Amino acid sequence: MERVMPLRGTTSKMHKPGNLGDRLLVGGGLGLLLAWLVLTLLLPLSAMLWRGLSDAPGQGGGAKAALELLGSANFRWLLGNSLASAMAVVAIVLPLAYGFAYALQRTCIPGKRLWRGLSLLPLLAPSMLPGIALIYLFGNQGLLRAWLPGNLYGFWGIVLGQAIYCFPHALMVLLSTLALADARLFDAAASMGASPWRAFRTITWPASRQGLFAAGCLVFTLCITDFGVPVVVGGDYQVLALEAYKAVVGQQQFGRGALVGLVLLLPALLSFTVDLWLRRRQRGAVSGRAQAWQAHPSAGRDRAYLLLVALVGGALLGVFGMAIFASLARFWPYDLSLSLQHYQFSDLPGGWQPYRNSLLMALGTASGGVALVFFGACLLEKTRQTAVIQAIRLLLFIPMAVPGLVLGLGYVFFFNAPGNPLHGLYGSLTLLAVCTLAHFLTTAQLTASAALRQLDGEFEAAAVSLKVPLLRHFLRVTLPLSLPALLDVFRYLFVSAMTTVSAVIFLYSPNSMLAAIAVLNLDDAGNVGGAAAMGSLILLTCALASLLLAALANRALHRAQAWRTAPH
Questions:
Q1: Of residues 15 and 179, which shows the higher confidence score?
Q2: Prediction pTM value
Q3: DSSP 363-426
């Protein structure tokens, strides 16, 4: 490839396709992307809305059934339980996540990489695994049963399990919130005699309130729509997400399940709308003239935050360590000798087949997702803005506001319709991968778009000036420079596909059962050891894949962008 020096004095501008090949690439690509979003998002959600409002006999749907559902004492009880447990989780997770993020970003504690790695452990396992681990710790025959007054199964079991599950999600938001700070503000505060607490109240806290609210909205939505933890440790304490699951799987009342799904959609939409409104009102915390702030050692502060992260990290390590140990125990709690008998999965049809299905589905989701996300991000960020592109941008934000359980119900109603020509996909690994990709598309798309925006506009100007075809420029310039970010997208989609439950719980067949669903089925059958084994297998697989992909991304960063550090 002939090297072209950057053009001095050129301005960044969107690539305007001039030749026929570029026009076909852009037009065809945007058309295919729009069609894919309509097929995988709009039509399934429309089908769920139609099924919820349809009054077909025996389905529990329709306007009359909706009024009866909303006015019933059972619904008010379920709603109250869901709100109470979700608010309790928010009250527990937000202070811990904020303190943890502050320790990593604003203090000089040792071992930050270790603590951050431990904090992300819940992301690598299905949501049922924390509940299973809590059973072995605080259940009726738990190792630490005396530590928990009362019964684990119920409100506190759900709160503890969901707090573990939601902690890393809130932490990632708050880490980004606290990542940047203007040193000039803190220097001015110190010169005026302000104490560290006063500086925190007047500088750090106002700049981080919006991020804290966003984390709270995220945790609240995750708790309202999660049924993995309640089905394991909920006992008689029922919640709305579990009611939707039981209505479809247990009672075959698809209309009632759709109505409950629509109710679950409301908190997510409300949280998303308020968070978006606050983002537009939020001013930038760091200006272009800002000076990077560096934490200075403070013995008392650093010891206090080190104790906090050690307690939280130790608790998370203990929970997931217990799950792995329990999966290896021969017969809990009477024979704790180590054995691999639970890993034979003799109670599962096909044995290890669900794990192999998950690997295939996760690899397919990640591979296809990276191609779709990269191509879509290039078209959206590097070509001239049109009404079609604005419509696509709007559609790409839908998965962020739609819970996985709701999207999965939509897929049931749309792809399982007898008149749908795509009916043959129902129950296949292909449809599971498509649904999973649609569910996690927004975060992946935002990551790829952010990486493309960081590329110097002079690359675009040089390509336009030299009349380089758009596809060649994408493959030979944009792709190598974006490779580290795309590997991060691959890792995110792979781990999400391995651990997801809510989006695919209604879509699998006996031949396409996934490992995360097998955890749920094993626990329902009373084989808690087998459920712990399958959950631990998912955890270890995701951890190994994350380490490998992180190493590849770091290597790609040094090889593809070596020019950043090359001597001049």
A1: 179
A2: 0.83
A3: HHHHHHHHHHHHHHHHHHHHB---HHHHHHHHHHTHHHHS-HHHHHHHHHHHHT-TT-TTGGGT
